[in-house]
Amino acid sequence: MTGRPIHEEITRRISRRSGWGTRTENYLPGWSYGLGILNMPLSCGGEAWGQGGDIDGDETRNGATDDGRAVTITVTALPTSEEAAMRPINALDQTLCAF
User: Which of 76, 77, 69, 75 is nearest to 94 (CA)?
Assistant: First the structure.
């Protein structure tokens, strides 16, 4: 599994055995979700795998690429608009693409 995020390998193996796959509904264009892991296209090409979470007063987004780049973004306020909700996602994308 060298050079490949462990969660991607786990998802691939479980999906193959169980027939489970990723779903694309209710996500941003190009995104898919399966077994608790999001797959998202990057603006610079390629893709990232990750999982985010929200709790009162805190929002986290993270992602890792096949070549080992990884970023976690944490903010201490929940979004109040769609534009605000996209800021951590855009920051994640821009940071992964900057490497």
Answer: 69
